[in-house]
Design a protein that fits this description.
This protein is of the alpha+beta class. The chain folds into 2 domains: about 70 residues, no CATH class; about 160 residues, Sandwich (Immunoglobulin-like), CATH 2.60.40. The protein is about 35% helix and about 25% strand. The protein has 3 helices and 10 strands; from the N terminus they run H-H-E-E-E-E-E-E-E-E-E-E-H. The protein has a 5-stranded mixed sheet with strand order 3-2-1-5-8. A 5-stranded mixed sheet has the order 4-10-9-6-7. Helix 1 runs antiparallel to helix 2. The protein starts with 12 loop residues before the first helix and ends with a helix. Bound molecules: copper (II) ion. The site of copper (II) ion (CU) has 7 residues, from loops.
């Protein structure tokens, strides 16, 4: 049942789907119960004779106590029950050691991705340097940043590896949504938030924005390419080569 959910290829997807189903079925049960009572009351207590008056009364402590206490107990149960699954995904002390760190920057209506260059080190970045031509605010003075690799609307990652995403936004609030990875996290301007995931299957998956961010919100989507380690290494090497060539080109121009 509920196989209309997007294909789950995330290591922690089962837990998320389990919670989703549980809450869904509780909601359906309450919906059916409330409406069944509603319809029964309409029929049972409909006006039978002309001039008959409805029965009025004020307050019922037992009734009011129950409809407050029951939802309270239900929410308390859901809070404690979901915490075990939640803590594996969201608590920073439970985050596995990342195999790859990627920075992600939201911009109306694009996703920018940044990988450290062949030196494995991200160049220093500064908020004040952020612009549409330098979405991460990479400091041009820092040599570590010169070979950093950036892409737009396309993110490549190796399969079966822990990917740590460092997420932010340069304008309004966006939400980084990877449906197949069961990942959804707000991208907040002025803040860097870490999230992680691990894909158990190669393929092309959707990257979406899950926060209405403006008239072009629907355009804000990209592709997540989950590749074998070998394919990913080839891809990132190509990116390094391109970045180095662009760098050499720029230096030549300045020397002339
Ligand atoms: Cu957006």
């Amino acid at each position: 049942m509920l196989d209309w959910l997007p294909e789950n290829v995330s290591v922690f997807g089962e837990g998320v789907d389990h919670l989703f189903r549980l809450i869904y079925y509780i909601s359906v049960a309450i919906f059916v119960l409330v409406n069944a009572i509603y319809i029964a009351f309409i029929i049972r207590y409909r006006r039978k004779r002309k001039g008959e008056k409805a029965y009025h009364y004020h307050g019922n402590n037992l009734l009011e106590f129950s409809w407050t206490a029951l939802p309270f107990a239900l929410f308390l149960f859901l809070a404690f029950y979901s915490d075990g699954i939640w803590e594996d995904i969201k608590y920073s002390e439970k985050t596995p050691n990342p195999d790859l760190v990627v920075e992600v920057m939201g911009q109306t209506y694009l996703w920018h991705f940044r990988y450290p260059g062949s030196d494995g080190i991200f160049g220093r970045r500064e908020r004040g340097l952020i612009s549409t031509t330098n979405p991460f605010g990479i400091d041009p003075e820092d040599p570590n940043g010169k070979d950093d690799v950036t892409t737009i609307n396309s993110m490549n990652i190796p399969v079966n590896k822990t990917i740590l995403v460092r997420l932010s936004s340069m304008d309004v609030i966006h939400s980084f949504f990877l449906p197949n990875m069961r990942v959804k996290q707000d991208a907040v301007p002025g803040q860097w938030v870490d999230i992680w995931f691990n894909s158990i299957k190669t393929g092309e998956y959707e990257i979406a924005c899950a926060e209405l961010c403006g008239s072009g919100h629907y355009l804000m989507r990209g592709v997540l390419n989950v590749q074998s380690q070998q394919e990913f290494d080839t891809w990132i090497d190509e990116q390094y080569t391109t970045a180095r060539a662009a760098l050499a080109n720029a230096q030549e121009t300045t020397n002339e």
